[in-house]
Design goal:
The complex is a heterodimer of chains A (about 350) and B (about 325). Chain A contains 11 helices and 7 strands. By secondary structure, chain A is α/β, with parallel strands linked by helices. In chain A, strands 1-2-3-7-6 form a 5-stranded parallel sheet, sandwiched between helices. Chain A has a two-stranded antiparallel sheet with strand order 4-5. Chain B is globular and about 60 Å long. Classes of the chains: A alpha/beta (about 350), B alpha/beta (about 325). At the A-B interface, helix 5 and helix 6 of A face helix 3, helix 4 and helix 5 of B. Bound molecules: thiamine diphosphate and magnesium ion. Thiamine diphosphate (TPP) binds next to strand 4 of chain A.
Chain lengths: ~350, ~325
């Protein structure tokens, strides 16, 4: 949530630290799920540069309606880590009392929409939010994220259509990781998507049919993501836009998934297209980072993330009596009766 | 079709249900600039049943929005507006076309407050004409209240006369939760009654005792109410007639009070019987009032088929079916 358009070296370095934090935390959270501390988990590896770029691009006055794979966006936005971790581990401190799956944040006071599991189920909500803000002449834009798979849903097309018809201050940001679980966005002959080559379908081009422009950015380069998204947000008063960020889901879809069944892992950790490696290369070129600093940040992050995970693995769960709260503002008689079933 | 009059310090006008709903929307929009109407043909055209007639002239196209033809879009757009502090009133032109928006209704609208523990609330009223009466066949005559009533988090409201229509709609607009407001289209122009021109409310979650009697409790709502009342009057049935007005959560106290007195129950709905609202009321009575009952609970409902075009009248409940059921219940020893 930075105010100015040009990023200082310090902010870039801080962004890099957040990117490493996301990478390290991701591994630890995946591990926590394997050990039974998390019943379900949605890995992030490969998405970090998009998340950090988005977090950098969002200004205080902007609104984001994320999807379920956006942990790092909140890190970079500066949302308190306790708020984030309490949600992921569904603890008693969670804003939503552990009612939603990990990474399903809902933080109205930070201008963050309520993440929904239904793929693309939030896109019309983001569209309506953009209309409300335009109607109330609120400064800033609305940004919503979603995967490549989401672009096959009716919700996506309807939302794009409404955004075009009403010329809404809305940035559609597609985190194209090449796959909807096991199904490639646009399969090539061997059934794979190579996210780094022109595929036969191009998501960003769909915008043209709805009366606004679409662009494609390198989703492994957080500075490119930041620059294009910030520009889009600044220009959102004039037009909606669709940004397609090309990336690669380096891990499994979820903890219930074995990707070896359906694809070869061509972007592995430490390889050229790994967002961590791309970021290191960029910041080294800018003389912001060197090998010593890289090692130092790694060690620091390893240490702080271990402490965090330990803390939240052990954190208390919400009280069972809360589960019947807040269905309606005024509790119906049958809910009151069902309180007896909890005793 | 005038069940009761209300005169006094308010100016009243004799209105159809359509006019009463229009008056409610007008009153509400005048008081609160966060209210936005949206839907197909609701603006310039004033809605296909004219419920939103002339409102665009008074409030402009930013508040009375002719939307693209997408029910998913209309409902989703309204949800987003209400998440951001407005109070959306989406109209679905016919209940029959709501199904492409069912995901939005079930997954987002109904669950938002609960799954965020109140971080987000959804003050919105989704209006739609429902049930038969215009010979619209399978795609202009469906009831469907059960789909909404069975979804946790929704409040389902349906009026049976112009006075209630206005007062219930204005009450719904005071809730901080989503309301499915089902308007019985057969009653839209079925008759006029005196309705205050000014703002007033009718309590939600409160049934209305339309007729008092000792022999039997007839529980009904919405499109079936006039039929039940006419049947009761014509045949001199000594019945309590309960108009639920809110289907979920229904007024259990009013029902129990009546059933304890009469000990005999008939439930009349225009929607089909199997798995219907009547089933829920019957089951609840079986749980809470079995000791009072002196006869089986019977139901008169729409037939368990899609609503047919030419022979719609055979599908919906009628006087004969109601009388057969009443006689069966009364003769049971
Ligand atoms: C409407 C809907 N259908 C199916 C699912 C199950 N599901 C969860 S994620 C997913 C794939 C989504 O792919 P994409 O939109 O590309 O996002 P990604 O997970 O790759 O980030 C599917 C099929 C769902 N959550 N919602
Ligand atoms: Mg994907």
């Amino acid at each position: 949530m930075i105010e100015e358009t040009d990023i200082s070296d310090e902010k870039l370095l801080n962004a890099y630290k957040n990117l490493i934090m996301e990478r390290v935390m991701d591994k630890k959270m995946l591990n926590a799920s394997r050990q039974g501390f998390l019943p379900f988990y949605i890995p992030l590896m490969g998405h970090e540069a998009m998340h950090i770029g988005l977090g950098l691009a969002l200004r205080k006055q902007d609104f984001i309606y994320p999807y379920y794979r956006d942990f790092g966006v909140l890190l970079q936005m500066g949302i308190p880590i306790d708020t984030i971790m309490s949600q992921v581990f569904a603890t008693a401190n969670d804003n939503a009392l552990g009612r939603a799956m990990p990474d399903h944040f809902s933080l109205k006071k930070y201008n963050i929409g309520a993440v929904i599991t239904t793929v693309a189920g939030h896109l019309m909500s983001a569209t309506g939010i953009a209309y409300a803000r335009k109607y109330r002449e609120i400064d800033g834009g609305v940004l919503t994220t979603f995967g490549d798979g989401a672009t096959s849903t009716p919700d996506f097309h309807v939302a794009m259509n409404f955004a075009g018809v009403y010329n809404l201050p809305l940035v559609f940001f597609c985190e194209n990781n090449g796959f909807a679980i096991s199904v490639p966005t646009y399969p090539n002959e061997s059934g794979q998507t190579d996210a780094y080559e022109e595929t036969k379908g191009m998501i960003y081009k769909k915008a043209e049919a709805y009366g606004f422009s679409g662009i494609r950015v390198d989703g492994t380069n957080f500075i490119e993501v930041y620059k294009n998204t910030r520009k889009a947000l600044e220009n959102s008063n004039n037009t909606p836009i669709l940004i397609e960020a090309m990336s690669y889901r380096m891990g499994p879809h979820s903890t219930a998934d074995d990707p070896n069944k359906y694809r070869k892992n061509d972007v592995t950790e430490g390889s050229e297209k790994d967002p961590v490696i791309v970021s290191q290369r960029l910041l080294k070129e800018m003389n912001i980072l060197d090998d010593n600093k890289i090692k130092e940040i790694e060690d620091e992050t390893e240490d702080s993330s271990s402490k965090l995970i330990n803390k939240y693995e052990k954190a208390a769960k919400p009280d069972k009596n809360t589960i019947l709260d807040n269905l309606y503002e005024e509790e119906p008689w049958y809910i009151t009766e069902e309180r007896g079933d909890l005793q | 079709m005038v069940y009761y009059r209300r005169k006094g310090r308010f100016a009243v006008t004799s209105m159809t249900m359509v006019k009463a709903l229009n008056s409610a929307l007008d009153n509400a929009m005048e008081r609160d600039d966060s209210i936005i109407l949206l839907g197909e043909d609701v603006g310039v055209d004033g809605g296909v049943f004219r419920v939103t007639d002339n409102l665009i002239k008074k409030y402009g196209s930013a508040r009375v929005m002719d939307t693209p033809l997408s029910e998913l879009g209309i409902v989703g757009f309204g949800i987003g507006m209400s998440m951001a502090g407005l109070r959306a009133i989406p109209e679905i032109q016919f209940q029959d076309f709501i199904y492409t928006a069912m995901d939005q209704i079930i997954s987002q609208m109904a669950k938002l407050r609960y799954r965020t523990n109140g971080d987000y609330t959804l003050p919105m009223v989704l209006r739609t004409p429902y049930a038969g009466g215009v010979h619209g066949g399978p795609y202009h005559s469906q009831s469907g209240e059960e789909y909404f009533a069975t979804t946790q988090g929704l409040t389902v409201v349906t009026p049976s006369n112009p006075y209630d229509a206005k007062g219930l709609l204005l009450s719904s607009l005071n809730l901080n939760d989503p309301v499915i407001f089902l308007e019985p289209k057969r009653l839209y122009y079925a008759g006029k009654m005196d309705v205050p021109d000014d703002y007033y409310t009718v309590d939600l979650r409160k049934a209305k005792l339309l007729n008092e009697g000792d022999d039997i409790s007839i529980i009904t709502y919405g499109p079936a109410v006039p039929l039940v009342m006419n049947t009761v009057k014509k045949n001199n049935i000594n019945a309590d007639v309960i108009d639920l007005r809110t289907i979920n959560p229904f007024d259990i106290d009013a029902i129990l009070k009546s059933v304890q007195k009469t000990t005999r129950v008939l439930i009349v709905t225009e929607s089909p019987k199997m798995f219907g609202v009547s089933a829920e009321i019957s089951a609840t009575l079986a749980e809470k009032a079995i000791d009072y009952l002196s006869a089986p609970i019977l139901r008169v409902a729409g037939l368990d088929i899609p609503i047919p075009f030419a022979l719609e009248d055979y599908y919906v409940p009628n006087e004969k079916r109601i009388m057969n059921a009443v006689n069966k219940i009364m003769q049971y020893r």
